[in-house]
């Protein structure tokens, strides 16, 4: 952009400094291109206020034009001042923003793979035109698509690209990408790192005085899930309280609905199932109005969990099946198999263990779907073992639910008297969950394993399992997370 302290441009001096030279050279090329496209001579473009020699010098990048000169040239060339100085056409920017909105709508109502195609088109054109804002919006959308399909490494790459692109922007602009990266780590089972990303961003916002309500609500809402999985219930409750306090300052129905989902998790943990169901009903109503199908499916999923906790297994099964079918129709592979683990738990509790086992065994894939190698010519998988390339749960893709699936298979084997298979599944679950830090689940598994070993007469091994479980239950969430993040002034 022109130096506004300069004169009218007719006698502007030469540009000094590499940065100024680069800017003037780029502007000069832009003026030359627009003039040539319109068939103007340098004199026609310059008159009546300037000279052909001045335009020639400007096009060569040898002068820094004033704002008055740039406005004259923009008017003669039939473009806006912004388009001339930045190269951004308002029409192109509006068109790309509309395309991002269309892609967001496609992600909300359809399959993530289809939406990703639209986001990729916006990203590529925005990069070609040099539109950083629209490019970052498209990359953020691609990250969200990858989260939904379970391509967690791809999701992290997209979110990190947004952070690099916006590195010079204020922190609130980067928060959606940081939140996306934290969710990717959470889904991969890296709970501590997910908490670290969220808490360090909260601290940085508050320490710098950037008390942006939208950014803080996004972070506190996202922090509830890893806190709950790690057994840090007090922190989860406080994050929910802060989110509720921030909500009136935020005009985003989708984010408010997501907050209600998070708050419901803390209410469930406190045994306040009726309040949790009411909170989920609010979220569900908002998602239905917005036609955000994936998040609506998550509401059915959590309502199924609420009913399961309340002992209403028939309603729980109905809600979980609805969630599973909705997610499967959107080809949200990772979320679909996670719901199936919780559905299998309800089926087992209803006495339908064969159905539960048949649902669980195919989920424990050796290889996630994304990036799988060609399996032509490979032998068939063993019964209950997913073929390579099938979507499933692994140590780095849904580790918490993979541990949950092994726990349920261990319970089923234990109930039918197969102690060897039960121990194998319990140990597999422990191996998966130890890297996640899911304290409550680990303590429960150690209890189950200890009970099994005690019944088998292996008392010393049982005592070791119990002691390990007690270690996980001691001060859950406080020894690994460090001090709680600073709170914003409310």
How would you describe what is shown here?
The chain is mainly α and 490 residues long. It is 71% helix and 0% strand. It has helices at residues 18-38, 42-46, 52-59, 67-77, 81-86, 90-109, 112-129, 132-149, 152-165, 171-187, 191-207, 213-230, 233-246, 253-269, 273-290, 293-309, 313-329, 333-349, 353-360, 399-415, 419-434, 439-455, 459-473.
Summarize the structure.
Mean pLDDT is 84; it is low at 1-22, 366-390 and 474-480. This protein has helices at 18-38, 42-46, 52-59, 67-77, 81-86, 90-109, 112-129, 132-149, 152-165, 171-187, 191-207, 213-230, 233-246, 253-269, 273-290, 293-309, 313-329, 333-349, 353-360, 399-415, 419-434, 439-455, 459-473. Helix content is 71%, strand content 0%.
Keywords:
single chain, 490 residues, mainly alpha, 23 helices, 0% strand, disordered N terminus, TPR-like_helical_dom_sf, Lambda_DNA-bd_dom_sf, TPR_rpt, coiled coil
